[in-house]
Amino acid sequence: MRVPGLSQPAHLLRDSLASLTERQVLLLSAGFLFCIGLIMVGSASMGVADASYGNPFYFFIRHFIYLGIGLLTAAVVMQIPMQTWNQYCYHFFLLALLLILVVLIPGIGKRVNGSMRWIGVGGLTLQPSEVMKLAAVLALAGYLVRRQEEVRSKLSGFAKPMAFVAIVLFLLLMEPDFGASLVILTAVMAMLFLAGAPLVQFIAISGAVVVAGIAVMIAEPYRMKRLLAFTNPWEDQYGSGYQLVQSLIAFGRGDWFGVGLGHSVQKLFYLPEAHTDFVFAVYAEEFGLVGVLCLLLAVAALVTAALRIGQRAERAGQYFSAYTAYGLAVIIGIQSAINIGVNIGFFPTKGLTLPLVSYGGSSLIVVFAILAVLLRIDAESGSVQERGVRRAGGGDHGAR
């Protein structure tokens, strides 16, 4: 069917995109993002790497190593059946919880910029909150499969997972890691909603979360300072609003097509954390609005592919896989949205990376593990559907 007004190349492009499978879209969008990430980490970090370590490629090399570790991790995770994840999801959750407890122990946890979120392992670091994102989704997916009727009909079915989440959030806020807390809470709420939990419970929990969020903001002066800086960063552009102001300047300099790769000015010691939390701002400066739109389309395609993989698993009757895919899609989507929102001044500043793009070993490795789980779900649900088609075909042939 031809659409009036579309040229032949446009028809070919539309037909090609429509013929892509969820697996292909997932791989293409993820590949685009981690290639952009590798390029941008190298571009954004050269100045600070040269000044701090005497090697302009210091962070680029480490990021490349983390990419290799991430690919090896994905290859291993791809071999694990979803039934095994279902069987041991609670054990994995308890391991992640133990890591969060360990990181809070003085002398073991590594403090950076006032937050104790990392465990030093040789020359590398592990961020337990990243592991918890995957563990929380898997554990809740297992719970929803085992207690689906209770979740839909009783308050206890909703309250039990929220109690465990409250413990996780309390420990994360002690680090403190407000960004990871928000991502995990959002994913859990989304999964419970998709599992059919009553709407009235969401309204009550949402109200409690808002009240608790206000209390958390008020409890720590630095959080209130960040919140006020976010509402009007120009009021204190050389103090609490400095980071956001420099980020907005980067977006302004980017214009339509950017200043060109490697030509960013803001990364030259004006924009703090230029290769981690604010790499998107440097990307916008160097590639402009057109580049930003391409990256946003890639993120949207990745999240959409993950959701469609979940739908396919649900149609195949694999509910644990379906809930896992939905939760992981929310994790990637909400973390990307928050990071981008922080860069453009839509949200207060939080220490969250842009998945597959920002520098950060733990984040990168866990995202590769997430992608591997999604690919495993797609493969298993696809094989179930193929067996169903064969049975239906065999039945029809026998009837004839």
From TrEMBL:
Location of this chain's protein in the cell: Cell inner membrane; Cell membrane
One GO biological process term: peptidoglycan biosynthetic process
Pathway named in the protein's UniProt entry: Cell wall biogenesis; peptidoglycan biosynthesis
Family matches, as InterPro entries: FtsW (IPR013437), FtsW/RodA (IPR001182)
Annotated membrane topology: Multi-pass membrane protein
Catalysed reactions, as listed in the record: [GlcNAc-(1->4)-Mur2Ac(oyl-L-Ala-gamma-D-Glu-L-Lys-D-Ala-D-Ala)](n)-di-trans,octa-cis-undecaprenyl diphosphate + beta-D-GlcNAc-(1->4)-Mur2Ac(oyl-L-Ala-gamma-D-Glu-L-Lys-D-Ala-D-Ala)-di-trans,octa-cis-undecaprenyl diphosphate = [GlcNAc-(1->4)-Mur2Ac(oyl-L-Ala-gamma-D-Glu-L-Lys-D-Ala-D-Ala)](n+1)-di-trans,octa-cis-undecaprenyl diphosphate + di-trans,octa-cis-undecaprenyl diphosphate + H(+)
GO CC annotation: cell division site; plasma membrane
GO molecular function: lipid-linked peptidoglycan transporter activity; peptidoglycan glycosyltransferase activity
EC number: 2.4.99.28
Entry keyword set: Cell cycle, Cell division, Cell inner membrane, Cell membrane, Cell shape, Cell wall biogenesis/degradation, Glycosyltransferase, Membrane, Peptidoglycan synthesis, Transferase, Transmembrane, Transmembrane helix
Transmembrane domains' residue ranges: 25-45, 57-77, 89-108, 128-145, 157-174, 180-197, 202-219, 287-307, 319-344, 356-377
Top-tier EC class: transferase
Primary residence: membrane
PANTHER family: CELL CYCLE PROTEIN, PEPTIDOGLYCAN GLYCOSYLTRANSFERASE FTSW-RELATED
HAMAP family (UniProt xref): PGT_FtsW_proteobact
Purpose: Peptidoglycan polymerase that is essential for cell division.
Family: Belongs to the SEDS family. FtsW subfamily.
The protein, known as: Probable peptidoglycan glycosyltransferase FtsW
Native organism: Amnimonas aquatica
